[in-house]
């Protein structure tokens, strides 16, 4: 376990600053980030990435995949990180979170330097009204407690549980209380309601089994702490108790900043609490 001098706190996050190829840290998961009824997946990823960055010197996080082996509950969490690979231009770190001696999540974090001259234009942002012209979607707080931490403003007329014909949701997002750029981006990557909610008219629990996030550009203070992020969540397919979502995210200047893909369980007879 890292000593107090090897841990720095950023908000509610404890981040190891050890320079060894393996480290551990004690984290606190706050109840206000509850989802189904485990903790919000993006928040869990942000906590894990905070530990992983303590083992990497200066390289930006480019991809992260997290598998949920069990629900993460409010309270203390033990994190263990291992530097699996390191070179001057890339590094890979695995992070596990445990509660009561049981591993609840496993994450792989890929760090890569920005190099190369080949450029292929990214997918453009959809044409939607600016965030200032969109209404705050407070109804999200009725679906999951963590929505109180977010400012969610739908940018189209397709809303969650509206029985729409297309399983796609588009909204402007930001945290109500600013945090570090990386924590913000990973949290927002899982902030949208499930894509299947667009075509449903009643909520059902759809907990995450796995989330992968790819960062197209390193998160910066300018684009995340003071501005909005536009997210478009599409349900690729739902059936046999499984649902797959894809989400694209752009900054206010229309630059694609991140994408996520998520595998969920659909608990049609489950409870939201």
Automatic annotation (TrEMBL):
Residues 36-111 form the Acyl-CoA thioesterase-like N-terminal HotDog domain. It holds the Pfam family 4HBT_3C. Residues 134-263 form the Acyl-CoA thioesterase-like C-terminal domain. InterPro entries: ACOT8-like_C, Acyl-CoA_hotdog, HotDog_dom_sf, TesB_ACOT8-like_N. Coiled coil: none annotated. This is Thioesterase family protein. The lineage of its organism: Bacteria, Bacillati, Actinomycetota, Actinomycetes, Propionibacteriales.
